[in-house]
């Protein structure tokens, strides 16, 4: 479990900020981990704000909701810079589903941390093809603390780091359908990709005749 090196912004000292990133595949519990950290800060009466991309409307527009239904109120925004003003008076800022924001998120997180805010970012590190997702690689580089959480492979029970898409859609952002994905380990993810390629080739061949 992640243990913060320091969580107090002692009244007598100038506030010091930093960036924490929590990444993993779908079903890895990264949102739960974000909520755990934020709730602990709230209990300590720190000022907390939570933001998420406006396009993620899978559950409730106002809540960061994880799959296990532990939820916390959040503000949907279209662009990262929209959080600068409301976040500047906070001790802690949480950002969920960060992979859907554009690259400017990195600069915004840096600015907040530079101004004494503790920034906690959660997001998918890879898309359904196993490619680094949106601003996440750059965020991982600039963060002081990185936590990679894992799911369990539905095929073999190994540690899973991939979000395998069960449907053939080629859009990077496919929302609303957690049923369309399953967590897989490297081996089973690769097998699934190869099966799909083989199937695609067979369909293309059949169409020729
Ligand atoms: Zn597996």
Structure keywords:
single chain, 209 residues, alpha/beta, Rossmann fold, six-stranded parallel sheet, two-stranded antiparallel sheet, binds zinc ion, P-loop_NTPase, zinc ion binding, thymidine kinase activity
Protein model, in words:
With 209 residues, the chain is α/β, with parallel strands linked by helices. The chain has one domain: P-loop containing nucleotide triphosphate hydrolases (Rossmann fold, 3-Layer(aba) Sandwich), CATH 3.40.50.300. The chain is built from 5 helices and 12 strands. The strands form 4 sheets. A 6-stranded parallel sheet has the order 5-2-6-7-1-8, sandwiched between helices. The protein has a two-stranded antiparallel ribbon with strand order 3-4. The protein has a two-stranded antiparallel sheet with strand order 9-10. The protein is elongated, with a radius of gyration of 19 Å. The model has no long low-confidence stretch (mean pLDDT 87). The structure holds zinc ion.
Write the layout of secondary structure elements.
Elements: E1 18-24, H1 30-43, E2 48-53, E3 63-65, E4 71-73, E5 75-77, H2 84-87, E6 92-95, H3 104-114, E7 118-124, H4 136-142, E8 145-148, E9 151-152, E10 159-160, E11 162-165, E12 181-184, H5 186-208
Parallel strand pairs: 1-7, 1-8, 2-5, 2-6, 6-7
Antiparallel strand pairs: 3-4, 9-10, 11-12
Zinc ion (ZN) binds next to helix 5.
Please state the average pLDDT score: 87
Strand line-up across the major sheet: 5-2-6-7-1-8
| Whole-number tally of structural domains | 1
Identify the CATH class.
Alpha Beta
What percentage of the residues does DSSP assign to strands (E)? 15-25%
GO molecular function: ATP binding; thymidine kinase activity; zinc ion binding
Keywords: ATP-binding, Cytoplasm, DNA synthesis, Kinase, Metal-binding, Nucleotide-binding, Transferase, Zinc
EC number: 2.7.1.21
Subunit structure: Homotetramer.
């Amino acid at each position: 479990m992640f243990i913060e090196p320091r969580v107090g912004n002692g009244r007598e000292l100038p506030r010091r900020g930093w960036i924490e990133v929590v990444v993993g595949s779908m079903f890895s519990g990264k949102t739960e981990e974000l909520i755990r950290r934020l709730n602990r800060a709230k209990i300590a009466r720190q000022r907390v704000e939570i933001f998420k991309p406006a396009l993620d409307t899978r559950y409730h527009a106002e809540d960061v909701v994880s799959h296990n239904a532990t939820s916390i109120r959040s503000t949907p925004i279209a662009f990262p810079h929209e959080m600068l003003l409301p976040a500047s008076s906070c001790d802690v800022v949480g950002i969920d589903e960060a992979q859907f924001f554009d690259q400017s998120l990195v600069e915004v997180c840096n600015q907040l941390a530079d101004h004494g805010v503790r920034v906690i970012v959660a997001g998918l590190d890879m898309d359904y093809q196993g490619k680094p997702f949106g601003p996440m690689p750059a965020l991982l580089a600039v963060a002081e603390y990185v936590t990679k959480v894992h799911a369990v492979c539905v095929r073999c029970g190994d540690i899973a780091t991939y979000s395998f898409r069960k449907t053939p859609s080629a859009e990077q952002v496919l929302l609303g359908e957690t049923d369309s994905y399953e967590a897989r380990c490297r081996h089973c993810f690769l097998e699934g990709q190869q099966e799909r390629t083989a199937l695609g080739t067979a369909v293309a061949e059949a169409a020729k005749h």
